[in-house]
Queue: 2 jobs
Job 1
Amino acid sequence: MQFPGCRDTALRAQAWLPERDPRAIVVISHGLAEHGGRYRELAERLVAERYAAYALDHRGHGRSAGHRANVDRFDYLVSDLGTFIARAQREHPDAQVFLLGHSMGGAIALAAALRYAGNLRGLVLSAPALSAGEALPAFKLLVVRMLSVLAPDTGALTLPAAAISRDPAVVRAYENDPMVHRGPIPARTLAELLQAMKMLQEHAHELRLPVLIQHGTADSLVPMAAVRPTYQRLGSPKTRTMQAYDELFHEVYNEPERERVIADLLSWLAALR
């Protein structure tokens, strides 16, 4: 499916639907440099439990328009996701909506949950990019911000494929996927994401939705230790559930232990229906 996003950017998305009316809708917000199609296995598991799964390709990603991996403005991503949620709701007006975001998509999903809370039943965050920790020293951060304005497409960060999963087949598929951006991440995207992280850290306590957080303890791309302070400010202890998986890497839905992770997700969703 195709629909216009913020500033008329042509966005592409896909859906996996059960044969009968869905119990609920799960909208998926993918991570940096990848695309919604990489969530097919997760979507098929959701469909088997009679959920409708919807995944868009963020601007600059997958089949959507835009300079590769350049999101332009973080706020555009949030607006795009809000439009996509509304589209899914129109398809199934009697179904509740859950929002699931991974990595950068987790940051986008949290921002959308803060903005569109009235349209959602719950939020799932998989290794959300809510803190850079010590990854960027002050000097490099200044350079990234300058390049973001002067030369926004300049490469500023390279993502190591081996860090996404301990499953070699997953890494090979990622490296050979023509819709995965394997070049450096543009300075504009990195600067926008870093600015969004700061905003989300400041507003995390305002979340009014049940939230499930799933994170691998061996994640080197988004280390748990860096994100934990923001986790502890999300909503309240009564509304947040934290599931940490020993030794798992960044993409917990693509690790060898994925069955256990997805089973935990399904149990949490079922408890809220």
Note: The two ends are 27 Å apart (CA to CA).
Job 2
Amino acid sequence: MTTLVSFIVVIGVLILIHELGHFLVARWAGVGVERFSIGFGPVLLRWRGKETEYCLSAIPMGGYVKMMGEENPLEGGTGSIPYDPAKAFALKPLWIRFLIVFAGPGMNFVLAAAIFIVVLGTVGRPVWPAVVGRVAEGSPAAAAGIQTGDTVVAIDGRRVTYWEDLERAVDGSNGRRLDLTVRRDGGERALSVAPRQITVRDPIFREERQDWELGIGPRLTPTIGGVSPGSPAEQAGLRAGDHVVAVAGQPVFTPEELIQAIQKRAGQTFDVTVERDGARRTVQVTATSVKERGLTGQEAEVGRIGVSIVTRGLSHAAYSPPAAVWYGLVRTWDMTVLTAKGFWKIVTGQLPMSNLGGPLQIASETGRQAQEGTAPLAAFTAVISVNLAVLNLLPVPMLDGGHLFFFLLEALLGRPLSLRKREVAQQVGFVLLMLIMVLALYNDLVRIDAFRFFK
């Protein structure tokens, strides 16, 4: 029920904001709006304003704003509303029509930025202390004498508060030797270390880039947040609140390390060492094996034990109002670039179509974020809002981007395309969108293994 309600609320807000953008700019430009609808299909609720009919329809997967003279400047008006050529959309200047159409995705960008600004200015960004966890063998950090449990308090005389301060200094060093002050066993000592350059892969698109590192990671003790009934974790005696310190005798310092340690042991039985009530205990767990599809489209067997994981030591630091505005805008831009890049890679075949997600995946993730809290759900809504904006700007007929593309052609040709050509393009666009929606829904069903009964 939480998943369903949160999904309807999130999708409803995104659609409302999008259509409100079209509606408000159309009204501002003097265009008559005949109908403002949230949803498609059978109308569940309707009421009529002075000029506009407002509708709530049964299928909450979109909406529309029907404007007077939208396609044909000689047609329009419904019921008691007479047709007025002065309010016809098609008779307005090109730049006004462009603004009206762009206002929908534009409002989704505005919503995303507003959410990011509020979240960063109130809850803040996640931060963790500059406490060293894993120290890689043969790394610059190991050679300099840095040890697990050290707290970095200063770099080149500048105070270090969070792990991000350490990362920022290393990234900006360009290999220059750094003077670190670390706290160990109640005292402080000075260490000198020269970062090394390595090749790393982008965690999303797996693209290679050059980076600087010391060969250390943070210590963020992974903690079991919940245990699924009947899962291998429950059968082994693991409980919510257990702090995991080792898997198969190997220490783990972050939730990511714990997840990777479990995933690579599909179908295996291994030891898990946890801290509980100040004491350590070791239990044996047998991970189940499930198939998971990666970004490349290839399936792999991964291990699961049925736990959710939270991070001990994680806190949040709020930005000042000016900084929240700046970083909120930066976050929106970064997410826009990331989304556009993802769409491009799918269209050009660099990423498989299996990465497309549909309503089931969105609903599932919405429910998960809702369980995490209001701030994670709000941030997820901002991400989906950016995705919706970028999707609508694609030059596909039936989408806002398709209309904007027609406007660009009109500007180049000096006249609009014929009504017949636009109708054919709309029909092609409709078929294309239906195919994409079917593919996305199929991907969702594959992810939840809905076809297992037919195997």
Note: The radius of gyration is 27 Å.
